[in-house]
Write a structure and sequence with these properties.
heterodimer; A: alpha/beta; Oxidized Rhodanese, domain 1; five-stranded parallel beta sheet; two-stranded antiparallel sheet; globular; disordered N terminus; disordered C terminus; B: mainly alpha; 2 domains; 2 strands; 71% helix; 3% strand
């Protein structure tokens, strides 16, 4: 409740600065803002319009205990591509809108509750460390568009082994041909949560070419003054129930 | 009768092979709990870190609804290029839909763009394009 008047005040101050300077800070050149659906409502993603804005609080910190909060390599796996904010904006306007992609906040639920990137769904990395038959992992993979293969006939198996049938996105248990493109993120370049999630997904057979790593994460998102949302209580309750089950 | 030490496992004497199996079992027995403990420690540190973070929402959509006094610069920036981008996107990714879209009257194109700008999924936008084309 107390947050909105504060936001309103900041917003009003921003408006004054825009009026003074006559300059609007877009997401990128030619793209002032975009909309994504979050918790069933449209959220406008834009940058803070105060030209004097500086990052404060937890994500302004440059030093954290290492290990475990060590600087991560550019990608957790050579098969996985890394994206910046610019590609993420495009992803939000294309695959995310079309339903062919998902933006995955791989942090534990307590982090998600503190604020997330609009359009994200919360699947803590712990889910992807579970046994391949674990119901939470199975549910996550199904949500990502993977299909369980069930019993595969000997002939089909043989054809796949010989390379006569397309087995490119198939494992023994899963068919990932129609699996969604994922952009997976966590707290930033010194966060290991999304790299762990990505490695878990790769272990489960998820094709690397369908996974992208947003290494900048929440730290870079906030550095650019981009819109964040605190998930609504109902969504958090649902999510934390799943999260608790996932983390057991 | 074959003596135990003379039995072989692959190219290795069975006694040494047995030793390897026991070693591997011990290694699994030791590393699995260590790995689990490391995960637990990591989760605990994450829980400690998250207490230092304040919940922050910078979504101003609800504030925007009541606001009409936007600066001219902001308005210009918000309206002009976005529709171009939408049309470029449609042309690039959905050529068929775009061919219908460009034949629509301006009012329908604008209506469709507003839907898109308000967050309608591309699937819905495309359906609307076809609908407006078939029922002008």
């Amino acid at each position: 409740m107390g947050l909105f008047p504060v936001c309103g005040g900041v917003y009003a101050a921003e408006q004054v600065k825009i009026a003074e300077t006559g300059q609007f800070i877009p997401l990128v050149e030619g793209k002032p803002y975009l909309h994504v659906v979050h918790d069933g409502r449209s959220v406008k993603v834009q940058r803070v319009q105060d030209p004097d804005y500086e990052l404060k609080g937890y994500f302004a910190k440059t030093g954290r205990k290492c290990p475990p909060f060590c600087i991560q390599p550019v990608t957790p796996d050579p098969s996985v591509g890394t994206v910046s904010e610019v590609e993420l904006f495009d992803f939000m306007e294309t695959q995310l809108r079309d339903g062919t992609g998902l933006l995955v906040d791989a942090r534990t639920n307590s982090w998600f509750r503190k604020g997330t990137i609009p359009g994200s769904v919360n699947y803590p990395f712990t889910v992807f460390a579970k046994d391949k038959s674990d119901p939470d992992l199975v549910a996550a993979l199904k949500h990502f568009g993977a299909q369980e293969r069930g019993e595969v006939g000997a002939t089909e198996r043989l054809l796949e082994d010989w390379g006569w049938a397309d087995a490119r996105h198939k494992t023994e248990d899963w068919d990932f041909s129609k699996a969604k493109d994922l952009v997976i993120w966590c707290n930033g370049p010194a966060c290991g949560q999304s790299p762990r999630a990505i490695r878990g997904l790769l272990d489960a057979g998820y094709p690397g070419e369908k996974i992208m790593y947003y290494r900048g994460g929440m730290q870079m998102w906030q550095l650019w003054g981009l819109t964040t949302v605190v998930p609504n209580q109902r969504a958090v309750r649902l999510s934390s129930t799943q999260g608790a089950r996932r983390e057991q | 009768m074959t003596h135990f030490t003379s039995m072989r496992c692959g190219g290795t004497p069975l006694s040494r092979c047995f030793g390897r199996i026991v070693g591997a079992a011990l290694l699994v027995g030791v590393t699995a709990p260590v790995s689990h403990a490391a995960d637990e420690a990591y989760l605990q540190l994450l829980d400690e870190e998250v207490t230092k973070v304040e919940a922050v929402s910078t979504d101003k959509e609800e504030d925007d609804a009541g606001r009409t006094a936007e600066s001219g610069a902001m308005k210009r920036a918000q309206t002009a290029p976005s529709r171009e981008r939408f049309e470029a996107l449609l042309r690039k990714r959905h050529v068929g839909t775009y061919s219908f879209y460009r034949r629509l009257p301006e009012r329908s194109r604008e209506e469709i763009f507003i839907d898109y700008a308000n967050g309608a999924p591309m699937e819905t936008v495309r359906e609307k394009v076809v609908d407006r084309y078939l029922h002008p």
